[in-house]
Amino acid sequence: MAPPFRNADRVEAFVKAAVQLPGDRLRRIDREWDGMHDHRGVVSELVQGNKALREEMAALRQYIEEVARQLEPPGDLIPEETAEAIIPAARALLLRDDLKAEGHPKRAAAFAALTRPFRDILPGSG
Fold first, then answer.
1. Residue 1 within a domain
2. What's CA 108's distance to the chain center, in Å?
3. What's the whole-model pTM score?
């Protein structure tokens, strides 16, 4: 069953790869998110005023936790911890078209920053 949100194929591939990353890497990434408050705020601004997007984000979090439970990734992270480490990048990937839209350099910078910790596993990264 495909996830119920936009860019589903891309997001699904990313999530399945990300939950398999070593726990120490996911913990390190999770700690880095605090330093990206401004970039995370750009995503929040897009989502806040749009009920459909808020629902997609809730479905995304649930999806990540379900995948983490099903795939039983290595390490000692529980699915909720795995989701916390992955969710900022997954949100950016879900909103890729909005964030990379021409004429919005702040959004493009947010997309680049939020996906950078996972650049080696992003769909299409080679």
1. no
2. 15
3. 0.91
